[in-house]
Design goal:
By secondary structure, the protein is of the alpha+beta class. The chain has four domains: 71 residues, no CATH class; 114 residues, Beta-Lactamase, CATH 3.30.450; 94 residues, Signal transduction histidine kinase, dimerisation/phosphotransfer (DHp) domain (Helix Hairpins), CATH 1.10.287.130; 156 residues, Histidine kinase-like ATPase, C-terminal domain (Heat Shock Protein 90, 2-Layer Sandwich). Helix content is 52%, strand content 17%. The chain has ten helices and 13 strands. The chain has a five-stranded antiparallel sheet with strand order 2-1-5-4-3. Strand 1 and strand 2 form a beta hairpin. Helix 1 runs antiparallel to helix 5 and helix 5 packs parallel to helix 6. The longest helix is centred in the middle third of the chain and has 56 residues. The chain is rod-shaped, with a radius of gyration of 57 Å. GO terms for molecular function: kinase activity. It is a multi-pass membrane protein. This is histidine kinase. Its EC number is 2.7.13.3.
């Protein structure tokens, strides 16, 4: 439920709930103050004011009945005294006037009020007020048996009714205020709590992010706008965490690179310095020794140049600043040419290199940068040479293809790679054996460069290995077209 809907429902509830509660409260108060089923425990289960009203009405009704049917009985003083005793506790009084003179007046009414009553004129009215105490008057005209005229005045004190009415109105007002206050207070608390609580949680998350604490995940588990905000905070936290983690990894890798390059550069520099110092000290006192030291200086310089070249190449690849020169390339022909050149490498003197593309192969076209693809194969071969440890050393290449991809596989029978290290061999600066120097181990960028170049071609690279048996590295490139033959796999020559 959205916050807008929640607030709208709370506003509706703030109107409807008080109205319903006030209606129930008003009904209850009316029953308590005026109803017949008041809970006072008095006789008949009625409120006192209700009992007083009923009893007084009964007495007045009896007197009126006699006044209409047998008015002469009202001249009986004992009867009137008896009626008066009933009227006193009911805050009421009776005055009987015959021929303009008071024939009877209740003892509870003052003489001055009786005089004011006689001096006044009711006219056609049946009720009016007299006296400081505000008696209400109701009169009934009489005609006695001797044809004389008279009037019976019924007086009653309305103050109990007014007092009860004031209490009732006051109770209604207080009840209304309490109902509105409680209802609005409870609803406001519930709605504000449902909003403020997640806001506090968001504040804590923001403070954690400000302090750099990005490890604790955050979920509001709500379907409203705050839930969406919480999800955005969590996504931001996750991205910041991943970004900082990658940055820390990059910094760590950069430190490893600096340490590795420093170490690998220092080794040939130290060798060069040693050769120069030996020549300065006259140790190289023959032409053969001088030639040996100069050759050593050249080898060390080549190692330095290769390290710097790999670092520069990977840096440009990583920053996407190295341009690719695309051309249609027949992979089978390219691989055959590469293997033929490889066999001429002095390092391959005692290594058997085979290629399935030496026989008949279909034309397998890819869009590639010839120079960079050659760099890929050379880096893979260089990596294989470092691990060839058997008397009979073999490097085999073959092609496989389907309608979409062309896969070049390069296999060696070297020492293999530990399964725990295999997932990381394409990571930058990673070395299976960190103790290797520049002459044997390289900078740790060779296979990382392979991955960057292959992915720049829209392809993939993967490796499988078995300790003590060897390693197979597979490079898959998108195929442009297939001009002859069905899909098949060309197996390596033996």
């Amino acid at each position: 439920m959205s916050i807008k809907t929640r607030l709208l429902l709370s506003y509706i509830a703030m109107i409807i709930v008080p109205v319903v509660l006030f209606g129930l409260t008003a009904s209850t108060l009316a029953s308590v103050f005026f109803g017949e089923q008041a809970r006072f425990g008095n006789e008949g289960g009625r409120s006192p004011i209700w009992n007083m009203f009923n009893e007084r009405s009964e007495v007045f009704a009896g007197v009126k009945f006699m006044a209409q049917h047998d008015p002469d009985r009202l001249l009986d003083q004992s009867l009137l005294t008896s009626v008066d005793r009933q009227l006193v506790p009911l805050k009421s009084a009776l005055v009987l006037v015959k021929d303009g003179r008071v024939a009877f007046a209740s003892e509870s009414i003052q003489k001055t009020e009786v005089e004011r009553l006689l001096q006044g004129s009711l006219g056609s009215e049946k009720k009016r007020w007299i006296g400081q105490d505000g008696y209400a008057i109701e009169s009934v005209d009489l005609t006695f048996s001797d044809s004389s005229a008279g009037t019976a005045y019924f007086l009653f004190d309305p103050k109990p009714w007014f007092a009860t009415g004031r209490y009732f109105v006051l109770s209604m007002v207080l009840s209304l205020l309490v109902i509105i206050g409680l209802t609005n207070g409870v609803l406001t608390y519930l709605v504000s709590r449902s909003i403020i609580k997640p806001l506090h949680a968001l504040k804590r998350v923001a403070e954690d992010i400000k302090e750099g604490n990005l490890e604790r995940s955050f979920r509001l588990n709500r379907k409203d706008e705050l839930g969406e905000l919480g999800d955005a905070f969590e996504e931001m936290r996750g991205r910041l965490h991943d970004s900082i983690h990658r940055q820390l990894q990059y910094e760590e890798s950069r430190k490893e690179l600096i340490a590795s390059i420093s170490h690998d550069l220092k080794t040939p520099i130290t060798g060069i310095q040693a050769c120069v110092q030996a020549m300065r000290d006259g140790i190289a006192d023959t032409e053969a020794k001088r030639e040996k030291y100069v050759k050593m200086i050249g080898i060390k310089s080549e190692q330095m140049d290769r390290l710097i070249d790999e670092l520069f190449l990977y840096s440009r690849l990583d920053e996407k600043k190295l341009p690719f020169h695309w051309e249609e390339l027949d992979v089978a022909a390219f691989l055959k040419e590469f293997v033929e050149e490889l066999r001429l490498d002095p390092r391959m003197e005692y290594i058997r290199v085979s290629c399935s593309s030496e026989g008949h192969m279909p034309s397998l076209l890819v869009m590639a940068d010839r120079e960079k693809l050659a760099r890929v194969f050379m880096n893979v071969i260089d990596n294989s040479l470092k691990h060839l440890d058997k008397p009979e050393k073999n490097i085999r290449t073959w092609l496989s293809f389907d309608s979409e991809m062309v896969t070049i596989s390069i296999e060696d029978n070297g020492s293999g790679i530990d399964p725990q290290a295999l997932p990381y061999i394409f990571d930058r600066f990673y070395r299976v054996d960190p103790s290797r120097n520049a002459a044997t181990g390289g900078s740790g960028l060779g296979l990382a460069i392979v991955k960057q170049i292959v992915e720049g071609h829209g392809g993939t690279v993967a490796a499988t290995s078995q300790l003590g048996v060897g390693t197979v590295l597979q490079i898959a490139l998108p195929r442009l077209s297939s001009k002859e033959g069905n899909e098949h796999e060309a197996h390596p020559d033996h």
